Amino acid sequence: GKVLVSGANGFIAAWVVRSLLEEGFSVRGAVRSKGKCAHLQETFASYGEKFELVVVPDITQDGAFDEAVKGVDAIEHTASPFHLNEAQPDEFLTPAIKGTVGILESALKHGTSVKRIVVTSSTAAILQVEKDPKTFSELDWNEQAPRELAEHGSAVPTITKYRASKTLAERAAWDFVKKHRSEITWDLVVINPPFVFGPHIHQGATPDVLNTSARQFYTMLTEPSSPAVRHSGSCWVDVRDVGRAHALALLKETAGGERIIVSAGPYVWQDWLDAAPDAPKYQKGVPGAGKDAVHQLRYDASKSERVLGMTYYTMAETARDAAADWEARGW
Ligand code: NDP
Q1: Does the domain made of 2-199+237-263+299-310 have the CATH classification 2.130.10.130?
Q2: Could you report the per-residue pLDDT of 206-251, keeping only the tens digit for each?
Q3: Does 11 sit in the ligand 1 pocket, CB within 6 Å?
Q4: Taking CA 246 as the corner, what is the angle to CA 242 and CA 249, rounded to the nearest 5 degrees?
Q5: For residues 127 and 201, what is the distance between their CA atoms, to the nearest angstrom?
């Protein structure tokens, strides 16, 4: 079958595309402009006609995906803004929500052969900031970020705007499915990753072009940081596992109707410094000092193992492979 992948040039999406092609799917990647095509065409040239690109200039326009969904059997919707630059709430909310609902609407109207749609949400749509350490599961919803945004508007931190955008976009997707249950020919799967690290195959001559999570990963490993920062952390997953999860979400029948956390576990940054290659380029911090850290957030990823059959890259593997990628680029 053929799969439409939105935001195909992104850090995660490029690995989604590769996983799909490796599983034998044909892929139609959607990108915002023509300039984003050449690198992808080169990257996936060996797959010949199994890989094609379409330009969807503005995902917030009504009917933006009407043409792109025609003739595909499944959709993977990854396009959504993720950055920590100052921005008005709507700069996150509008593309996140309208982009998601818009692609579902286009599928409803014109995607007559679509059987499944996978939406890339985030653990940002699951976690809440709490006083005590907590393990979150797919049953949890981030009510906090949308509430704080409703109460305080653009005064909330950027991360809250992002988290609200992911929560509201995912909610809108499930609501759409509920509302149109009798008309749709497809079911919905939602993938919820925490911070995504690892080697990248999207375009990038210098580290500044990295997406938000991969750039933070690169900076933390290569630039000095304070003990407080080295003992802070979150949960993580390798980008190749996120790509594979998106392909498995199409292959596993029972994934239909599920939101699924894909997470390799918690970290503090010192753990990554310990895992980084032993070379002058990489920070050392205080080796081993992360071992006793209290992890404020954890995710129960057992559904991903049960339903998708996921296994996860280890920290040592991800650090090694990301570093090899940077060296190959001469960074
Ligand atoms: P990237 O920034 O690498 O990719 C984001 C993609 O979305 C790009 O194709 C980008 O297009 C597109 N996009 C962003 N804003 C808009 C917009 N306003 N209109 C149209 N397209 C837009 O990030 P990631 O690969 O990290 O993120 C991909 C998805 O994964 C997002 O949905 C993100 O929320 C989610 N995610 C990411 C995590 C992470 O740690 N990286 C963790 C959990 C979820 P363009 O290049 O043209 O800007």
Answers
A1: no
A2: 898 899 999 999 999 999 999 999 999 999 999 999 999 999 999 9
A3: yes
A4: 130
A5: 29
Report d(CA 188, CA 79) in Å as an integer. 16
CA distance 3 to 131: 42
Cα 217 to averaged position of ligand 1 atoms, centre (Å): 16
CA pair distance 126, 122, nearest whole angstrom: 7
Each domain of the chain, given as residue ranges in start order, spans 2-199+237-263+299-310
How far, CA to CA in Å, does 81 sit from each of 35, 36, 95, 199? 19, 16, 7, 20
* Distance from C-alpha of 78 to C-alpha of 60, rounded to nearest angstrom: 14
Could you tell which of 19, 80, 236 is best to mutate to test the pocket of ligand 1, judged by most ligand atoms within 8 Å of the CB? Answer: 80
